[in-house]
Amino acid sequence: MQSKGVKQVAVMLLLGGYGMGSIAQEEGLPVVKVTANKVVQAEEEVPASLVVISGETLADAGASDIGDLARYTPGVSFQPFGQSGTALPVMRGLTSGATAFSSSVLMLIDGVPVVSGQGFDHNLLGVARVEVLRGPQSTLYGRNAETGVISLHTRQPDEGPYAELEATLGSRDLTSLRFDAAQALVPEQLYLGVSGEWRQQDGFVDNLSRAGEADDRQRKSGRLSLRWLPTQDTDVTLRYGRLDYRDGAAPWGRIENESRRVTSPDPGSNRSSGEDVSLDVRHALTTDLALRSITARREFHDRITQDTDLTPAQRFAMGRDQRLTTLSQELRLERQGDEGQSSWVLGLYGDRDDHQLQFEQRNPMGTQRSEATLEAENLALFGQWTLPLGERWRLTPGLRLEQSRVALTPRGSGQRSERWRDVTSQLALQYRLGDDDWLYARYAEGFRAGGFNAFSAQSGYPGYAPEEVASYELGIKGTAFSRRLRYGVATYWMAIEDMQVQQVLQPGNVHIANAAEARSRGIELDIDYWLGGHWTLQAGLALNRTRFREFEDLSGDHAGNRNPFAPDISGRLGVRYDSPQDWYAQANLSGMGKTYLDAANQFSRSGHTELDLAAGYRHGPWQLGLYVNNVTDRRFDAVGLLNGNVREYSPPREIGLRVGVSL
């Protein structure tokens, strides 16, 4: 009893005491189960900084792509890039360049890894929940889980049939049609799930050389899942998905042009597409021991053209026509222990990349075309064990042995290859303060894959080694006030060695090298609070300070400068009301600090906040919803992309009306 009282006092001091007047309410927040450690746990039991976002929250707010997650996850953002299908995440101050063909954050879609920025997208249709795990996770997840993991879990078809249709109309002639349905083909044995979307919207950058906007968007996608339960111990799911873009140009303009206007006879286009197929098999060997296999093939066709001087002369332009294919296989043995028992995971993982690369750049000197084949093979053995030490202590060690080979074959030149061996470890110690409250200390290592500069013929296509991170983290997480409050606080310090830094020599000419060291430290705070009645509150704050310790190039000494694209502060405050009369209203205020776009810290995107509002009403099978994103129409252009040549325009206010029906 004494420890519980001390814990509640500590939480009240942490929160400044608000909400104390309604502690006596008997209802509380539901228990949230996650699979961040590849076994099922309550969110509070995971010894790491973790945010869980429900699919309902995202749908009500009109979220339609992976970039929208940044509004609900402090400490997570995306580089300003402007091209659909490619997203470069930023977490705990680190990110990667587009030409690295690797990411500092791993994304999982139903357990299938997405390891590069190309294809790092999802329309969030049918997503039941999103788990965002912050901090290095390479022990369990391998390369490119350097600073965290974003895991999307879609709804599984089962005995409960459903069919949902939704239409959305909104700003700039937004039109969206969505459906998500499932049905048992053979009761208790075979189930089919199908979902799809068609979405188009006018752009917001006027093209003075042609009638209309330069950056129109159109997307269509479909997903299919076939689930088979041959016995009560075996669960087999076959999934297929496809996503196609038919976009105009990126929302770019000349750096000096603040108005959303360009003068370009041919501003560009995006005809990218993605396709994936996976087979997920789980077989229960005993009541607490299971064998899991996930086999997948992903292909992303990155196909864009882009005017980069954005004038009638069109002196500079670039284009990409690249096919990135990854085959992956994971086989693991999972033990799901009961309360007070150990849980562990032991697994093998392998993947193979086969990327066909083509890049074209036009300048006043002519047109330069680069073609190459980039291949990679990775094989890993990993394990993690959560061991109870008495009633209050837990110890979780983990280890991963991974071997990688990368080979580059430029057209007309010989093959270059490199091999690396990486050993990553983690060790977490937890102490139980109360029923649902834990203190933890965690040491973890992470790494991002090495590679080659596939388009740097003038320098001999140099290679670069993996980037490595060592992280030390302390945290406290749990529930309080009869489960009215769920909280998590983490502080961390990271050392980054062999840092992969990217230099843009001119538009389209990029070079990556292990030329820097850096240090990163920060604090993350997350709160879910049931205010009483039908009100809930969610809040989060992330403070990060990532600075170069060593980094010098031809433009100067950058020691002490911020890492590009990493804000020092980000946060959110959300409130939701769910009425007994089947209507709801929610507001979400999110923001981040100033973000630099280059290592010299010369170009930047200003700090900003965005207010998003949503409300809706449900009547029987019908649902009507209204959302307004960026209510105040806040501008936060990225001024100085591509070494100071380009301004990326931020999107204006968007209003949408959703009408849905459940059949």
Mean pLDDT: 92
Main sheet record: 22 strands, antiparallel, barrel
Which percent range describes the beta-strand content? over 45%
Task: Tally the helices.
Answer: 4
Helix-strand makeup class: mainly beta
Descriptive report:
- This is TonB-dependent receptor.
- Residues 44-149 form the TonB-dependent receptor plug domain.
- It comes from Halomonas campaniensis.
- Keywords: Cell outer membrane, Ion transport, Iron, Iron transport, Membrane, Receptor, TonB box, Transmembrane, Transmembrane beta strand, Transport.
- A hairpin with a 2-residue loop joins strand 6 (106-109) and strand 7 (112-114).
- The chain has a 22-stranded antiparallel β-barrel.
- It is built from four helices and 42 strands.
- It is mostly beta strands.
- It is globular.
What would a concise description of this structure say?
The protein has 663 residues and is mainly beta. The protein is built from four helices and 42 strands. The protein has one domain (2-662): Maltoporin, Chain A (Beta Barrel), CATH 2.40.170.20.
Question: Secondary-structure blueprint of this entry?
Answer:
Blueprint: H1 2-14, E1 33-34, E2 41-42, E3 49-54, H2 55-60, E4 76-78, E5 89-91, E6 106-109, E7 112-114, E8 127-134, H3 138-141, E9 148-154, E10 162-170, E11 174-186, E12 190-201, E13 206-207, E14 217-231, E15 234-245, E16 252-254, E17 261-262, E18 268-270, E19 273-284, E20 289-307, E21 317-335, E22 343-363, E23 366-389, E24 393-410, E25 416-432, E26 438-448, E27 451-452, E28 463-464, E29 467-480, E30 485-506, E31 509-532, E32 535-553, E33 556-557, E34 569-578, E35 583-592, E36 595-596, E37 604-605, E38 608-619, E39 622-629, E40 638-640, H4 641-644, E41 646-648, E42 654-662
